[in-house]
Specification:
Structural class: mainly alpha
Shape: globular
Number of strands: 0
Distance between the termini: 23 Å
Length: 164
């Protein structure tokens, strides 16, 4: 099949071309988890700092603090995993059939999610070890929730792993 100057299939309407290009711009905009771990972690640090500063401003203004912006209740590992699970991975998996070389980028997303999962489990285990009242059921419940989320993510991503 032939392509046009912009590299897109000639049968795409102008509206479809614009939608595709906007989608690619969005994919680039949320691509931090698709970088190497060092780069992805640094960007996450900066984004979470910005979120927490926003939460501080909301608190000072007497507003309800946006949940992921609350430095006292939100955790970077959870924010990052949720961002990957609900924003990055679904978009990249949708684009991958159109752009087969995205498989290597998706591999970075998978690896980075694994890193965040390790940090989350370490944090939960640390919190469990600090538990004063001996009631670890809440932390056990939290760990179970995140295990289920990881299993769901792995199932979704298995499609991409099979195509490698």
């Amino acid at each position: 099949h032939s392509t046009t100057v912009d590299g897109l299939h000639p049968k795409l309407s102008d509206a479809d071309r614009i939608t595709f290009l906007k989608t690619m711009l969005h994919a680039a905009d949320i691509s931090n988890p698709a970088k190497t771990w060092t780069v992805a972690k640094k960007w996450s640090d900066l984004v979470v700092d910005e979120f927490f500063l926003q939460g501080d401003l909301e608190r000072e203004a007497g507003l309800d603090v946006t949940p992921h912006c609350n430095r006292y209740t939100a955790h970077q590992d959870e924010i990052s995993i949720n961002f990957i699970d609900h924003m990055v991975a679904p978009l990249y998996l949708t684009l991958q059939p159109l752009m087969p070389k995205l498989v290597s980028v998706i591999s970075c997303v998978i690896n980075n999610r694994e890193q965040w999962d390790v940090l989350l489990r370490e944090r939960l285990c640390h919190e469990e070890s600090k538990s004063v009242d001996g009631n670890d059921s809440h932390l056990d419940d939290m760990l179970e929730i995140w295990i289920q989320k990881k299993l769901a993510f792995d199932k979704k991503m298995s499609i991409c792993r099979e195509e490698k």
